[in-house]
Amino acid sequence: MTAASTATVPARQRLLGAALHEFRTRGYAATTVDDLCRAAGVSKGAFFHHFASKEALALAAVEHWNAFTGELFAQAAYHVLPDPRDRVLAYVDLRGELLRGELAEYTCLLGTLVQETYDSHPALRDACRAGIEGHADTLVRDIAAAKKKYAPKATWTPESVALFTQAALQGGFILAKAQDDLAVAADAVAHLHRYIELLLPVPTTSRRTAK
Description:
Elements: H1 3-7, H2 11-26, H3 33-40, H4 44-50, H5 54-74, H6 84-97, H7 103-106, H8 109-117, H9 122-150, H10 158-179, H11 182-199, H12 204-210
Helix pairs in contact: 2-3, 2-5, 5-9, 6-9, 6-11, 8-9, 9-10, 10-11
GO molecular function: DNA binding
DNA-binding region: 32-51
Protein name: Transcriptional regulator
């Protein structure tokens, strides 16, 4: 984005965009208000006109992130697949497709923030928890339908599996940061895909029919 085009974006939106990048790159504690102002190209006065504190901006960034990612997944093509098992697996595959670019471009804002602030900033912790659990909830209906069709006697719950998908993804992001390598996150997604396949086994007769 050029300086001219940046100037046409409202300061609040520029600060939200800066927060998404800076918090995921530097971490919450290491990111200062000055860093955020510099990244957004706004003055400190403009910052405090829109946000009372760095935490207030972080909370707004979480809300912004939830709205953006919620829309992204709500419009994803996997929703039109007729089989619920296929929809769940396609969701996992989409998460793999989103692993591209630099770490800060594909890691999760919520996971990054909550790891650092879960004890020191309870409002941020609660906001991140609500966002992660809210996203997991969007998977429950498909997982429940797939369980009913493919694993009706299984003792696990759709809610627990939906949350596990998020645990596996967040864990993959952590490993990618530790190893500075996108491939390890991609491996985590691939293993998650295999795990879901094992939880929802296709009957042998169905496999023969598919051939």
